[in-house]
Amino acid sequence: MASVSENSGNFADLKVSKWLVEALHSMKITQPTAIQKACIPKILEGRDCIGGAKTGSGKTIAFAAPMLTKWSEDPSGMFGIVLTPTRELAMQIAEQFTALGSSMNIRVARVVGGESIVDQALELQKKPHFIVATPGRLAHHIMNSGDDTIGGLRRLKYLVLDEADILLTDTFTDDLATCVGALPPKSSRQNLLFTATVTDQVKQLQHAAATPGKPELFSYEVEKMDDVAIPRTLKTTYLLVPEQVKEAYLYQILTSSAYNEASAIVFVNRTVTAEILRRTLKDLDVRVASLHSQMPQQERTNSLHRFRANAARVLIATDVASRGLDIPTVQLVVNYDISANPDTFIHRAGRTARAGRAGESICFVGQRDVSRIEAIEERINKKMTLFTDVHDTAVIRKALNKVTAAKRQSLMAMEKESFGERRKINDRKNGKRTV
C-alpha cells in the first residue's frame, strides 16, 4: 500500500476546483484527512484507486472531490455512479454530493429500494450528473427499464464502490455484475473502491492485471489501520446473560442511573428481534426507534432523523446501521446479539467513541457466544472487562415481570399484524433477498 506525504496543507493544494474548495470551506471542512490527501491527486491524474480507512475518516470526500472537480470542467450528462450496500448510506452520500455541488446546479439521483420505481425511472431519464444507488434496485432498472432510462449509464466516467468489502461478497454478486455490465468497459472509466475493511477480495483487486492504456492502479490504506482496530477512547465490556431474560437486562441497563440519558444503539442480528425490542421498550416508555430492512423506506428515514435529533434516545438496529452512517453523538453501543464476524463488532463499535470522544460497548454473551467473543478479542487485540453496573437481583426485582408482560403484548401485536409476511412473499417472488 502506498504512503502519503504530509505537505498537502489544504484542498487547493490538492488541485480541487476553486468553487469546490469554497463549498467545503462553507461546510467548515478546510483540512484534508490522510485518505483525502493520498487519493484526491491520484484520482485527478486519472488513476483507478483502492482506498482503505476507518469509518469517519472522510472517504466520501476522497472520491467526491475529484469527481466533482472533473465534472465541473464539462458538466453534462451522466458522469459518475456510486454503488453502496444500504439505502441509508446511499441517502447520506447523495446528500453530500448535493450539498457540495449546490452552487453548480448539480443533479443527483438516488436509486434505492423502498421508493417509487416509476419516479426513479423518470429521474434517470433526465440524465442526472451523479447516481447513488444500491445494486439491487439499479439492477432492477437495468433489466426492466428501457434504453431511455438506463442508456446514459454507458457514457459514465466514474464507478465508485463504497463499502467495497461488503459489495464484493456473495450477497451482491449477481446484482453488481448486472450493474457493471451496463457501464462503459473497464478501460473507458475510472474505478474507485473505498472500504473500512480491506478484505481478501479487495486485496485480490490490487494484484489484478493492469488495464492496457490506463495508468497503474493506486492503492492506499491509512497506515497501521489494523493495529488499532477500535478507538483508544472506547471501553469494551461484556455481560453474561441467559437468553430468556436478555430484554430485561437491556431495559435495566438503559434505564439505570448511569445510562438513562445516554444515546444508545442496540445491534441485533435479525429484523424480528429489532421489532420485538422496539415495541417492548416503547411500551415501557423508552424513547426508541428502529432501523431494519423490513421497515418501509420512509419509516427508516424517519427513525434516523428522530435518533439524530434525540427525539429517540435508543436506536434498535440490524447491521444496516453499522456502516458509515454519520451519527455523531452515540455514547453507548450494545451488542444484544453477537455477530459471527469479528469485523462486524468493529463496525458496530465504530458508531461510538468517534473523533476522540469517550464511548462504551457492551456485549451480551450467551452460552453459544463465548467463541465469538474470543475471536473479537483476538481481532481487536484487547480483552473485554466484565460489566458490573447491573446485577441479577436488581433485574429480577425491578424489571423482569414488567418487561416480560410488555414483550408478550409485542409478540401478540406482531402476530396479529402478520409481521414479516409481506417480506416473505416478496422474497419468494424475487427468488432472493431484497435490498
TrEMBL record:
Q: Could you tell me which Gene3D superfamilies the record lists for this protein? A: P-loop containing nucleotide triphosphate hydrolases
- What's the catalysed reaction? ATP + H2O = ADP + phosphate + H(+)
Matching entries from SMART domains are given as: DEXDc, HELICc
Write down the EC number: 3.6.4.13
Q: Name one GO biological process term.
A: endonucleolytic cleavage to generate mature 5'-end of SSU-rRNA from (SSU-rRNA, 5.8S rRNA, LSU-rRNA)
Q: Which residues form the Helicase C-terminal domain?
A: 233-396
Q: Does the keyword NAD apply?
A: no
**Locus of motif Q motif:** 9-37
Give the subcellular location.
Nucleus
**DEAD-box RNA helicase Q domain ranges (all copies):** 9-37
Which cellular component terms (GO) are annotated to the entry?
A: cytosol; small-subunit processome
Write the protein's name: RNA helicase
What species is given as this protein's source? Lachancea lanzarotensis
